[in-house]
Every structure is written in structure tokens, then in C-alpha cells.
Design brief:
single chain; alpha/beta; two-stranded antiparallel ribbon; 7 helices; 25% strand; globular
Length: 243
């Protein structure tokens, strides 16, 4: 089995519950959503080469011709892990659940737990591969960043994801409506009430602007009325200029 990969590298998890943990990242092509703040070039077929870090933490990237086999990706991951212990393998994108057969095959070839970073909308795809996943970082997309709301899809996804170690991440901007954050918190509370909810201030891009400190605290207050564990965590890897 072969797949186009955008990049493979070792770094820290910069977002959410496991911020600061060392991971190997495998970034896959393609996404089924159109988020206004997305800064990742993930279009399918746009990456003739995969950029692979030569050594863990070096930031030295070398091109490997796509598509890569599962065996080759597993070999690269093993080499990076050999340089330093890692918490898990982050499979990200784009939207990685567009590539379920590859995820299942890769999981069978590696020793690390699989950490899935997903937009939280492909519930049937998640059901197909959840047995090989240990951790799930689930985005909950608010209507103001999409061309159409996906509340019901998120609900179905969380129903499945709650069987694993899952946390929910909501990106908030200056333009974010308080009622949408409250609805997101109520959705999580109704399905998986002990789940961590992360409010992530947007890294300005695509016309979205960062919320003020006072606005962040107000949105957290509103969410805490429904969920007991609500944390405000920015994209820390951006702050430190890490991959």
C-alpha cells in the first residue's frame, strides 16, 4: 500500500491535552472541510515529494518521492524514534480519516501508540479504524468558519470517539459567537461530559483575527457552565517556531 505524504518529522505536540509531548508527525493529504483559518496546503496530488526530517529535532528536511509505501513510512518513523523516546505517532493532515486503509496498515507496522488529529466529522471512517487508535484530538468546528454547520456530524463522531482517550478542541477568534461556544460545550456535555474541552485562540490567518484576553476568559466562563474541564491553550509550536 502506498500513499502521498506531505511531511514526516519529530517535534512536540503544540496543541491541546498533550501539549509539549514528543511525537513523530505523519501529515496526509486532503480535507473534506473548508475552514477559513486553515494554513495547511493539503490538496490531494499537490505533493510530488514528501519532506522527511533527517534526524529527530534537526529541522533538516529532505525530499522523498511520493507515494511512499507503508513499510517506508514505518522505517522513517522507527529511525526518528531511535534518536529519542516519543509519546506517540501523530497522524494528521488535512484530514487523516480520508485514508483509513493506510492508517490501519501503518498502525500494524509501528510500536508507538497512534494519536489521531481529526476535524471530527468522518464518523464512519473513525468506526473503521478506532481499534488501532489510542488518542484522539477532535476538532469541533464552529459554523462561522465553515460553509455549512456540522453539529450533527460532530455529535455522531464524539459518540464513537468517547470510547478512547479523546479531547475536544474548539478554535476561537475575535469573530466567534458566544452562543456557538455554548452550543459546543453543551454538545460535549451531553455525549461525553468528562471530556476535556480546549479553547484554542486562532493563529490569525484567512481573515480571522485573534480574540482579546478578556474575550477568551469570557468564552471559557461560558463553557465552564457546562463542562468542568475547559482550558485555554494556544498553538505553542507557533510561539517557539517549531515544526
Amino acid at each position: 500500500m502506498r500513499e502521498n505524504i506531505i511531511e514526516i518529522f519529530s517535534s512536540i505536540q503544540g496543541e491541546g491535552k498533550y501539549v509539549g509531548c514528543r511525537q513523530v508527525f505523519v501529515r496526509l493529504e486532503g480535507c473534506n472541510l473548508d475552514c477559513a483559518y486553515c494554513d495547511t496546503e493539503n490538496e490531494i496530488g499537490r505533493h510530488p515529494c514528501c519532506m522527511v526530517e533527517e534526524g529527530a529535532g534537526t529541522h533538516a528536511l529532505v525530499p522523498h518521492e511520493n507515494p511512499l509505501s507503508v513499510e517506508m513510512v514505518a522505517e522513517i518513523v522507527a529511525r526518528l524514534v531511535g534518536d529519542v523516546p516519543h509519546h506517540s505517532l501523530s497522524i494528521t493532515g488535512g484530514e487523516p480519516l480520508l485514508h483509513v486503509p493506510f492508517i490501519k496498515e501503518l498502525a500494524a507496522h509501528i510500536d508507538l501508540p497512534v494519536f489521531l488529529e481529526t476535524n471530527g466529522t468522518l464518523d464512519r471512517a473513525l468506526a473503521e479504524c478506532i481499534d488501532c487508535i489510542s488518542h484522539i484530538s477532535m476538532d469541533l468546528k464552529l459554523p462561522d468558519v465553515l460553509s455549512a454547520p456540522v453539529w450533527d456530524t460532530h455529535a455522531r463522531f464524539l459518540e464513537i470517539a468517547r470510547a478512547k482517550d479523546v479531547y475536544v478542541k474548539v478554535v476561537v477568534a475575535a469573530e466567534t459567537r458566544a452562543e456557538d461556544v455554548e452550543r459546543a460545550a453543551r454538545l460535549v456535555a451531553a455525549i461525553a461530559p468528562t471530556t476535556l474541552l480546549v479553547l484554542q485562540p486562532v493563529t490569525p490567518y484567512g481573515g480571522c483575527s485573534a480574540p482579546s484576553p478578556a474575550r477568551l476568559l469570557e468564552l471559557q466562563r461560558l463553557a465552564l457552565c457546562h463542562i468542568s474541564d475547559v482550558r485555554v491553550i494556544p498553538q505553542t509550536h507557533r510561539m517557539m517556531d517549531l515544526l
